[in-house]
Specification:
about 325 residues; alpha/beta; six-stranded parallel sheet; 12 helices; about 10% strand
Length: about 325
């Protein structure tokens, strides 16, 4: 299997190479190629990545190149992580936004629009080369910011072999776990039973359950007689639930999926294939749940099912002060 990284001269290249090399034998990755059009950065950061990969998996072939055709030729998977205009243009874009009193951040800030305008044409050129020179069933995973806008645009342009990903954790709860000092593995174990509408019983949606668990970490009471503390927590849960229903139509798994009441239940989850996600709204619902909690953290007032504002949006609680 060949994996190609377009943008292999970035400062994170060494860490990406480490992660891939550690799993190379298990995943049968026998070739890794880092490509970048900046020769000097590729020499420095790509060279560091090459050294790490060779230490961890000397059997895996590692190649550095500035030739895009050579990079994507016969690739099974391609990771795109580019910055058109490099750091100089990022700094310029963000300063322009900041000078106008607007958040300049490269994903959700104003600069994300200009980043996308520069990145999409460049990525489209790479996609054309990938279609021509890579394996027929190649898949492209896009890390280029703003990842959501760029990835959706590429798919809208017809590049349906592209997928948008981010290096944030994949589950609802452990996306925010660090905020409260909760270990990733513990967060995953705690939230595992809520999949499939709680143990695949199609009851309360797992993404909604993740929201409610976060509410517990935020301001949950630890004393049985603490009526005020419990009331504050229940209030937050009800506000999050109302906003979840407003955005998704329901908090109940079977209703979100359109499953008939009384349908036979099985504890065995379906295989997570491409077709599975095409017929499920789950990824979008998880993203919406994460957005709801981000809105809460940033002090956005929610509107309940009846349209009335029902949250003070304080966003204050038990979060780690370093968060």
């Amino acid at each position: 299997m060949k994996i190609t990284v377009i943008g292999g001269g970035g400062v994170r290249s060494m860490f990406l190479a480490k992660s891939i090399a550690q799993k190379a034998e298990k995943l049968r990755i026998d070739e890794l190629c880092f490509m970048d059009n900046n020769k000097e950065k590729l020499r420095i950061y790509g060279g560091m990545a090459s050294h790490v990969a060779n230490l961890l998996c000397p059997k895996m072939k590692f190649m550095l190149t500035t030739d895009s055709i050579e990079a994507v030729k016969d690739a099974d998977y391609v990771i795109t992580t580019i910055r058109v205009g490099e750091d100089e243009m990022r700094a310029k874009d963000e300063r322009i936004a900041l000078n106008h009193g607007v958040l300049g951040q490269e994903t959700t800030g104003a600069s994300g629009l200009s980043f996308a305008m520069r990145s999409v044409p460049a990525l489209a050129e790479y996609c054309e080369l990938i279609k021509k020179f890579s394996k027929p069933n190649v898949k492209v995973f896009n890390f280029t910011n703003p990842a959501g806008v760029v990835s959706q645009t590429l798919r809208d342009m017809g590049y349906d072999f592209t997928y948008g990903i981010c290096d944030a954790p994949s589950g609802m709860l452990h996306q925010f776990a660090d905020l409260y000092g909760v270990e990733r593995e513990l967060a995953l174990r705690m939230s595992a039973p809520f999949g499939g509408g709680i143990g695949r019983m199609r009851e309360t949606c797992g993404a909604a359950c993740g929201l409610f668990m976060l509410a517990g970490l935020e301001n949950g009471s630890t004393e049985a007689g603490d009526r005020k503390g419990k009331g504050n927590n229940y209030k937050l849960v009800q506000e999050l639930a109302a906003e979840f229903r407003r955005r998704n139509g329901s908090c109940v798994c079977r209703e979100l999926l359109g499953i008939t009441t009384g349908a036979p239940l099985s504890p065995t989850p379906e295989a997570r294939t491409e077709n599975y996600y095409k017929k499920r709204p789950c990824p979008e619902i998880v993203r919406e749940a994460a957005a709801i909690y981000c809105d809460h953290l940033y002090g956005v007032s929610f509107r309940g099912d009846d349209g009335d504002e029902n949250a003070d949006g304080s966003g204050k609680g038990n979060r780690d002060k370093n968060g």
